[in-house]
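Bench notes, afternoon.
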Amino acid sequence: MKPWILGLTGGIGSGKSAVAQHFIELGVHLVDADHAARWVVEPGQPALAKIVEHFGAEVLQADGQLNRAALRARVFADTTERRWLETLLHPLIRQEITDYLARAESPYTILVSPLLVESGQHELTQRILVVDAPEQLRVQRTMQRDQTTEEQVQAILKAQATREERLRHADDVLTNDRDLNWLRSEVERLHTFYLTLRGGQP
């Protein structure tokens, strides 16, 4: 039987990486949308050639890798350019994710994506788990992890879907405001429940 797909998402600093890691330890096949997004623009991939053709060689580093900061600066300043890039990359990323999910051997498989809701990737899933935490706690965690300022974290928060928007799509919510042991036991509880589901629904 084909594994069903669980979408795993959460705002910055919610702890979704820790949750994802524990699902992997439990033997669940997991695909990371961020990895897929990086892979489709690797040297030798057709998307990178198209990006260079469109934006010019200044979006490349000396070693031929994509200069993400230079590209980001170009597309954030210009909505038309951002749309062009999304139109090119979103279908390729989706294809990469779909191919990878198809290789899963666990009863269910996880697509982890910070932009699950915003990118439309939630359409690939049968069920959504949102890792949630109070905003102040998420800001503190991100500042510690990335050695960054509160202003920078707030800017990222604004670019992501609002907490309400994410929660509206959620089938399950894991509130991560306690310690790691508690988090792991919650993941195990959800895993046990997910193993009983057919196609992601009770």
